[in-house]
Amino acid sequence: MKKKNEPDITGDLFAEEKPEGGKYVLRLYVAGMNQASARAIKNITRICEEHLEGRYDLQVIDVYQQPTLAKGEQIIAAPTLIKKLPVPLRKFIGSMADEEKILVGLDLRPRGKK
Amino acid sequence: MAEEGDRKEPAGVQKCPTGISGLDEITGGGLPRGRPTLVCGGAGSGKTLMATEFIVRGITEFGEPGAMMTFEETGDELADNVASLGMDLQGLIEQNKLAIDYVHIDRQEIEETGEYDLEGLFVRLAAIIDAVGAKRVVLDTVEALFAALPNEGLIRAELRRLFRWLKSKKVTAVITGEKGENTLTRHGLEEYVSDCVIFLDHRIDRQVATRRLRIVKYRGSLHGTNEYPTLIGADGLSILPISSLGLTYPVTTERVSTGVETLDAMLSGGGYYRGSSVLVSGSAGTGKSSLSAAFADGICRRGEKCLYCSFEESPQQIIRNMASIGIHLAQWQEKGLLKFYNMRPTEQGLEAHLVQLHKMVEDVNPAAAVIDPLTSLTSIGERDQIKAMLTRLIDYLKNHKITTIYTNLNPSGGSVEKTEAMISSLMDTWVVLRNIETNGDRQRLLHVLKSRGMAHSSRVRQFLLTDHGIEMPEQTA
């Protein structure tokens, strides 16, 4: 719980760590605008809209444009979705086709339930 | 494509020198330029070291920047590990000659949802290659992907693509792989890297660790096919490139004094042939070391260099003992003409000794050498292996025209001429020393059993160790 009058020494990223209402910070790394990328973007946008409406921040990043980010975030596969917040950090690789798996991974659905 | 029996390389295969001692000689100039090479071996066999040295020497000796993608060690860990071998990765990174990317994949935090490819890896590899303009690339160990991702089929397809991509980038790449049960690598990387495969072996034999290197294949190039002894020394890997060099060494009629005038006379007046191998055998206390020291003394007196390898005595002890019979070696050591190599034979494997001897010969470039005693080397290996190794050593020294004395300790009581047959046949000159008892007095005797290519004396001469050197008075027999 960040107090408003304290200096924010940790930067913006950390400021979002405990967002009100459990905001989701998601980053989708794709390699160019190919079919797989398009499918992944479409799938994850739909999932977010359906399950996280109004409380998610999804950014799509092209690793071709930002190779240093790929290194920093330890991206090897494309597409890769990183759930930066809420913790724990989780990565999904693929075209985001398996909605169940993503929902479980995003802690929107309890584990083991099918 | 492979051209057998022709020393000239086909125009298509260009070589990328590694700078690793010995490796370039075995491969006829280095790794295939612009192509991937697989370096495989078990844990601790030196794969990462070889890969790192390839990159570092590429930068420092050949001006080719390098990029490394590591999967098991972070850049810092790698830098720490090789710092003791005189490789300064951090410095090279600061000079913008080297780029390292550590790929860390935690299977726990990854979920697979549908189709994907490893384009992220390609992008990162391209980034470090472009960052420094790398000509040499290392992937260590790309097999980690198999543990990190569940979809093996996809990894294989992507590796195939990766190696094609590396070729299209025209970089010379080294890919390391862990040894598998019955395969060269655990995940069959050799399937994808077909140009050059190097296998590193690290085994323990009689409690002594020995390292070996073998070129499994090298497409389009002639290469040595043997197992080569390998050593991790103070400045990285060394590979002993000599196989049995064959009987093509240079010969001369030039003579080298034995250091004892009378013995020179017995060898048709000149001494040993330069570059020949001389065996001095005898039981304990017959004067083998003294004769060797006299030879070394004579060499240094003429201003030539001599390498003295002793497996039983320290240099100080040799110098002291020889001074007592009027042979003063300390002066030559001070002048840098006499170099000692002293080590207990059991300290390391036979190969390691040979690699070190080889290195010393390269460094010192001596005209003559003494191996005292040769017999102690034979205590550390299998018979066949010893014979092969000694043959290599003898051939190597011969090829460098280094006149060498090997001493051989005969068990007392046995026949004086019963030196292990495997050694004596390789020798050009054989001097036998022995003790006899006459009238309650022990006498030392010397005779030349054989000396190829010269009319040597067949007399048995008395051999005296006096306080002013070796004397061989005319009488006896």
Structure in words:
The complex is a heterodimer of chains A (114) and B (477). Chain A has a domain of 78 residues: Glutaredoxin (3-Layer(aba) Sandwich). Chain A is 31% helix and 21% strand. About 12% of the residues of chain A have low confidence. Chain B folds into 2 domains: 225 residues, P-loop containing nucleotide triphosphate hydrolases (Rossmann fold), CATH 3.40.50; 217 residues, 3-Layer(aba) Sandwich (Rossmann fold). In chain B, β23 and β24 form a beta hairpin. At the A-B interface, α2, α3, β4 and α4 of A face β6 and α5 of B.
Estimated share of beta-strand residues of chain A? 15-25%
- Report mean pLDDT of chain A, rounded to a whole number: 78
Order of helices and strands of chain A: HEHEHEEH
Regions of chain B with pLDDT < 50 over 5+ consecutive residues?
1-10
N→C terminal distance of chain B: 67 Å
CATH architecture title of the domain at 28-105 in chain A: 3-Layer(aba) Sandwich
Indicate the percent of residues in helices of chain A: 25-40%
- Please write the CATH class name of the domain at 28-105 in chain A: Alpha Beta
Oligomer: heterodimer
In terms of topology, how is this protein built?
The complex is a heterodimer of chains A (114) and B (477).
Chain A: H1 11-15, E1 24-30, H2 35-51, E2 56-62, H3 67-72, E3 80-85, E4 90-93, H4 99-105
Parallel strand pairs in A: 1-2
Antiparallel strand pairs in A: 1-3, 3-4
Chain B: E1 15-16, H1 23-26, E2 31-32, E3 36-41, H2 47-62, E4 66-70, H3 75-83, H4 89-94, E5 98-102, E6 110-112, H5 119-132, E7 136-140, H6 144-148, H7 152-168, E8 172-178, E9 196-205, E10 208-218, E11 227-233, E12 236-239, E13 255-256, H8 261-266, E14 272-273, E15 277-282, H9 288-301, E16 306-310, H10 315-323, H11 330-334, E17 338-342, H12 350-364, E18 368-372, H13 383-399, E19 403-409, H14 421-424, E20 429-438, E21 441-451, E22 460-462, E23 464-466, E24 469-471
Parallel strand pairs in B: 3-8, 3-9, 4-5, 4-7, 7-8, 15-19, 15-20, 16-17, 16-18, 18-19
Antiparallel strand pairs in B: 1-2, 9-10, 10-11, 11-12, 13-14, 20-21, 21-22, 23-24
Helix pairs in contact in B: 12-13
